[in-house]
């Protein structure tokens, strides 16, 4: 007679599955709450203590950690010595294990959970049984996921055995499951200790949200995963109200736009395209902020991403409806505004409560390289470590300083080499990703003059994500009528740039901190 050991925290479908196993002549062994549930449903089962001859103890902490259980799981049926030892010890084999683990994830996600509660929900016996059974997969079918009950039953009914291929598949799922489980525990403990150090060994676990149609390009496979935990303010927390499913590029670009948006507290709109901001505007209300963001680049916004940190109004939606947009994200929408967006079936409308909540400082930024992974903590520092340092003869006016700080926030999220021009809390020209800083500077000026007007840069300010290696960028800024510059400083040629600024009456401030984005 085949025997199955059942001990599950998630009892979805377990009674029905156990009844089917019994109807196939399989004997059931069970533990604790699972045993009680099966008995209540009149499913015949043997309690684990009856099998081991040892009572459950320590509030159920010890029940399956017993040689009779693990010898029955680990004995290789093809090994004569193993089978002889079982016979001599009067131990019977166990042919199937149906186990899932204490709800550690559900526990740590509860509001107000204590460390003691979390630790008590670390399963010990369950992972041990799973690993024992999975190691001996040739002889033991081990089921950790209720969705696999139907696969096992189908094969048992048709072939009277679970095939080796299926048992190998189930083995893989076990080790994926226990690996994820242990990683959740390790990550929880790291956060409990407020440990921001990069660990000697790095393990991470993510849960699939959805498979995607394709990746960056149609020939690449892709899926969307979320971190486990309360990640408020991230795109994984958004509720989609309209449109097609999000693509790989939609998610990547939207995430970048959201991270820039979090730098602002006043009503702000960010438009993003291919991972770079193309229009940013701040004002006293969200509609005016949209006007600025749209006017900054009416060309590149086509097919782009728009995020806003205030409720989108009917008046704003009326203006937006004529623009082809891929994704719109906001904390809320006026009912009439949402109805306007829903007339455009393809636009993805996301509602994200807590849109202003930043990432935890302990979060990691990951980049995959061939053969490895480069890991860093996120760029969560204040944009300026201390007070900015005025390094020129002329000090920026209050108006210029306001625009300088605005541009400095924008350039933090422009791919390096990055330059951002701003005026009246509106981005007017952005130069991203050039291999030379002077090219980025010229590009941002050309962009502003072409899309906004010949005099757009007169009285504007310039932000650079890293220092000027030469004074050529100052020269170009002067030609464009730019009156103030913000940059990190730190070049061996800083004095050249300062001298050139003084020559032209340009105010320049150093931040002491760069913000490369690669």
TrEMBL record:
It catalyses: IMP + H2O = 5-formamido-1-(5-phospho-D-ribosyl)imidazole-4-carboxamide; (6R)-10-formyltetrahydrofolate + 5-amino-1-(5-phospho-beta-D-ribosyl)imidazole-4-carboxamide = 5-formamido-1-(5-phospho-D-ribosyl)imidazole-4-carboxamide + (6S)-5,6,7,8-tetrahydrofolate. Residues 1-144 form the MGS-like domain. It comes from the Bacteria. Its EC number is 2.1.2.3, 3.5.4.10. This is Bifunctional purine biosynthesis protein PurH. GO terms for biological process: 'de novo' IMP biosynthetic process. The lineage of its organism: Bacteria, Bacillati, Bacillota, Clostridia, Lachnospirales. Transmembrane segments: none annotated. GO terms for cellular component: cytosol. Belongs to the PurH family. Pathway: Purine metabolism; IMP biosynthesis via de novo pathway; 5-formamido-1-(5-phospho-D-ribosyl)imidazole-4-carboxamide from 5-amino-1-(5-phospho-D-ribosyl)imidazole-4-carboxamide (10-formyl THF route): step 1/1; Purine metabolism; IMP biosynthesis via de novo pathway; IMP from 5-formamido-1-(5-phospho-D-ribosyl)imidazole-4-carboxamide: step 1/1.
